Amino acid sequence: MKVSASFLSSKNIPEDLTKLNDTDVDYIHVDIMDGKFVSNKTMPFQEMKHIYQYTSKRLDVHLMVENPSKYIPLYAELNTEFITFHIEVDEDIMKNIELIKKYSIKAGLAINPDTKIHSLIPYLPYIDQVLLMSVFPGEGGQEFIMETKERLEELKSLILSYHFPIVINVDGGVNQTTRVFCEKADIVTSGSYIVKSDNFQEKITSLR
Ligand code: DX5
Ligand code: ZN
Questions:
Q1: If 36 and its partner were Cys, which of 25, 53, 66, 206 is the partner (CB 3.0–4.6 Å)?
Q2: What CATH code is carried by the domain that includes residue 185?
Q3: Which helix (H) or strand (E) holds 106?
Q4: Ligand 1 binding pocket mutation candidate from 135, 203, 206 (most atoms within 8 A of CB)
Q5: CA angle at residue 19 from 200 to 196, to 5 degrees?
Q6: How big is the CA angle at 132 (ends 129 and 136), to the nearest 5 degrees?
Q7: What dihedral do alpha carbons 12, 67, 147, 27 form, nearest 10°?
Q8: SS3 state of residue 75
Q9: Which range of residues forms the domain containing residue 180?
Q10: What confidence tens digit (pLDDT) does each residue in 13-69 have?
Q11: How many structural domains compose the chain?
């Protein structure tokens, strides 16, 4: 299992990113919130872009924003592996997928816990990742929603039946206890479980 570490709940981002850089974590999960798609707001890109100083890991960017088209060109500048935005946005989904691809970056769609899995079907031929939300987006440290287990099974069968080379990343409330419900995923994203501990590598290892 690959692990993507979210620093949303971090109290000291430079310090925690430096510590994560010394682990074998696969990606740094960058949570971006605009205060509109979700009520919380993260720092503007002009500040966020400085994370490159503290990490050499590839970035897994999660846009929890109403207008992904405004953010994609910015985050495409960084050392980015995936840019993922929400299927629930009103903007044109295909145009945003194409915009991400234009930068030769992998495109992801995130799906909230109350959005039907089959709504992903039209986009599956064009995306590289599904970010299956196991909490409602907006903040770190929430509890894993148990229905995610069945949703993950449904999503996995769908992807397998079409033979699409898409990775599934489960995001929210993932820790040593809930990891077992993510067996069918390729990546788990975990924030507070890692950054609120005093041994990042130990927690990352426990999720593999
Ligand atoms: C939720 C974010 C998640 C979150 C993960 O809005 O998208 O990435 O920060 O953090 P934990 O593991 O604390 O739920
Ligand atoms: Zn996230």
A1: 66
A2: 3.20.20.70
A3: strand 106-111
A4: 135
A5: 45
A6: 140
A7: -40
A8: helix
A9: 2-207
A10: 999 999 999 999 999 999 999 999 999 999 999 999 999 999 999 999 999 999 999
A11: 1
